[in-house]
């Protein structure tokens, strides 16, 4: 638990048990039924057990009251992963015509304390969907992404916001800034692909622009799998002749970075050569290049995947893989 988080068990030193509150005297708590042979009994605290005993009793009665709503607040703070309680709380909120702005404040606080909890994010989505209060939601997600830029939940929620409320106008700038901040952020690269596919689409002009964009990013930091994967994804969308733009780029990178061997470059070159040989037939020069790259990866740069590279190599030569390690200076 971070310093910014609070333990719901200690959040209110003046807490009064529900059994001692006059307004709850008409409710008979409903104990949890673990059956006659409970194997591993969970050591719930007294506050936790009592709160959920009263929740079960209210749900059994289908009570639609303000006190039940306040009860669900305590329960959600004690266990924000309880799907059933969140469903009951939403039912109460909508039935009582509660202020959903206040609910967004409440759930926002819980999300900051439990950023990777599915139920808190789903509750917020459903509240925004019901209320149509979305003006501050992109800012909310961007604040959380500053804390953890690769957290799946705010990215997923953000995509829903963009599609549901048509908020695309500044998203590509936002994503670009995220990539500038951390070029290895695979989530940001994925978001870039998502935004373009949902807006302009990957037209011929957009594809050429994106190729230039990702190639420049690769040049600035070659040893980054995320940008190579983005290049791979964009390249597969090509419907026009780009005069060997990608192959030329890879050759330039190979010539420039031979002394600082990049496994992502070599792996992608193997992929391109293999595809070309399948489409156009095997040429000896291309086969020799692929064999050389596979040997470098298998024996020196990426030995953990040795059998994978050996398998690709075996399609182009019957000669066994050399049993020596290639030196780092080998070309």
UniProtKB/TrEMBL annotation:
It comes from the Eukaryota. GO terms for cellular component: CAAX-protein geranylgeranyltransferase complex; protein farnesyltransferase complex. GO terms for molecular function: CAAX-protein geranylgeranyltransferase activity; protein farnesyltransferase activity. It is an enzyme of class 2 (transferase). InterPro entries: Prenyl_trans_a. Its EC number is 2.5.1.58, 2.5.1.59. It holds the Pfam family PPTA. Keywords: Magnesium, Prenyltransferase, Repeat, Transferase. Its cofactor is Mg(2+). Gene3D superfamilies: Protein prenylyltransferase. Belongs to the protein prenyltransferase subunit alpha family. PANTHER family: PROTEIN FARNESYLTRANSFERASE ALPHA SUBUNIT/RAB GERANYLGERANYL TRANSFERASE ALPHA SUBUNIT, PROTEIN FARNESYLTRANSFERASE_GERANYLGERANYLTRANSFERASE TYPE-1 SUBUNIT ALPHA. This is Protein farnesyltransferase/geranylgeranyltransferase type-1 subunit alpha.
């Amino acid at each position: 638990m971070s310093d910014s988080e609070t333990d719901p068990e200690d959040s209110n030193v003046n807490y009064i048990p529900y059994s001692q509150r006059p307004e709850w005297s008409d409710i008979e708590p409903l104990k949890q039924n673990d059956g006659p042979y409970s194997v591993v009994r969970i050591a719930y605290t007294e506050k936790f057990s009592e709160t959920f005993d009263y929740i079960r009793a209210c749900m059994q009665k289908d009570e639609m009251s303000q006190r039940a709503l306040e009860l669900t607040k305590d329960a959600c703070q004690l266990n924000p992963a309880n799907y059933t309680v969140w469903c009951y709380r939403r039912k109460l909120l909508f039935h009582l015509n509660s202020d959903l702005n206040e609910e967004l404040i409440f759930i926002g606080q819980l999300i900051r304390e439990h950023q990777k909890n599915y139920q808190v994010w789903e509750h917020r989505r459903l509240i925004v969907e019901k209320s149509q209060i979305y003006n501050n939601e992109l800012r909310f997600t961007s604040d959380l992404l500053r804390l953890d830029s690769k957290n799946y939940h705010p990215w997923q929620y953000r995509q829903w916001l963009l599609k549901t409320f048509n908020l695309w106008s500044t998203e590509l700038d936002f994503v670009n800034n995220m990539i500038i901040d951390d070029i290895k952020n695979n989530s940001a690269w994925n978001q870039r692909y998502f935004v373009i596919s949902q807006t302009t689409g990957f037209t011929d002009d957009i594809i050429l622009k994106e190729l230039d964009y990702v190639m420049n990013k690769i040049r600035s930091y070659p040893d980054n799998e995320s940008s190579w994967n983005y290049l791979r994804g964009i390249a597969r969308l090509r419907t026009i002749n780009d005069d060997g733009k990608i192959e030329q780029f890879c050759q330039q990178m190979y010539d420039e970075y031979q002394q600082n061997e990049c496994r992502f470059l070599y792996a992608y070159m193997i992929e391109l050569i293999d595809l070309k040989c399948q489409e156009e037939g095997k040429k000896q020069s291309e086969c020799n290049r692929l064999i050389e790259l596979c040997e470098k990866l298998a024996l020196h740069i990426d030995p953990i995947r040795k059998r994978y590279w050996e398998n690709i190599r075996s399609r182009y030569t019957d000669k066994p893989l050399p049993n020596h390690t290639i030196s780092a200076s080998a070309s």
